[in-house]
Amino acid sequence: MEAKYEMHLDYLKKQDEVVYDAIEAEKKRQMEGIELIASENLVSQSVLEAMGSVLTNKYSEGYPGKRYYGGNEQIDVVENLAIDRAKKLFGAEHVNVQALSGSPANMAVYYALMDLGDTFMGLKLTEGGHLTHGHPVNFSGKHYNCVQYGVDKKTEMLDYDAIEKQAKEVKPKLILSGYTAYPRAIDFKRFREICDNVGAFCVADIAHIAGLCAVGVHENPVPYFDAVTTTTHKTLRGPRGAMIMCKEEFAEKIDKAVFPGLQGGPHDHITAARAVAFGEALQPDFKDYAVQIVKNAKAMAEELMANGIRLVTGGTDNHLLLVDIFQSKALTGKEAEHALELAGIYCNKNTIPFDTRSPWNPSGIRIGTPVLTTRGMKESEMKEVSSFIIKALDNSKEEAKLAEIKKNVKEFCKQFPFYK
Length: 420
Ligand SMILES: *Cc1c(COP(=O)(O)O)cnc(C)c1O
Hints:
The chain is of the alpha/beta class.
């Protein structure tokens, strides 16, 4: 098969071979390996070209039509395009596309909707939440009083009645849903109810599942939530960055929190790439992509479970699986991640709910299907990928065997070229 995209770095090659070599070697790693990191994706040539454009040269503090610098005519075109496409994609009333990344997007929403020291609720990091959802080492846990909720011990899934009960006691100003390592569908409607019952702002961080939400493969909370943040580089398959979508009534507060509250100039080259990516996501084939991501995840779940692997919650509804590797194979997450890496298979160690081990060496690994699906793989390939995973885990201490698997992985990946 032919590669879909051909990257040209001719000038860089001549001018700075050291950086060029590192980029080429990284591209080779991406193409020759099985990428299972659930938060990653592969962007199109158009997204790469927009990111690599002269828009990086511009300063445009402010918003379209209201800039603190001259010469922003074309930047306004691009930013308005990104906003309009995002509105269409998610049914949003208001969109801010300037947040530099997922974490600062969350910071901006907290800053807009709460006072420092206010109480909010977010899911524990060890049970699937993100650092910015109130972890004590993060600004979100330091600047706000975060009372965290957890998953049910038996089902390892969200227990909405328990969350509601806790919210009635805690009386938070804001309740955050949307996660980093939660393999199941989120009942956003139920979260809206809970927030209404306790008078809390209803906010979601859909960084991981945005691509699924955009096309209805996962319930999309944007039309009826107060504010929703997302990264643009995960399942949404755009450039590294983020955006905030909110109801019109919070628009001014959110925009002010981003600029001048938190940031200076927006990254206009990334804004252009966001516009391109949203344009791609509005095409009918993006829905096919999102549907296939979930089919692939389910196929991999079935195959792994048939081979004696325990998945947290016993399966998946989205793009990711959380594997209890300690119980399944008597390996720690760190050992499993390392063994898989030696076999050319990339994932990340991850805590599992009620983990008895440390976050640095937890009991689980997290794997996802967005990258492999972008490369064109389907359910039958998930079987092969699963057998590579099992083989590597079963030979985790045998470097020669892992090196042999890596060769086979490379051959396998050749069938799905993406960047030349
Ligand atoms: C990835 C992620 C973020 C952070 O995004 P960065 O761009 O890495 O700052 C925030 N929230 C959730 C739920 C995420 O999964």
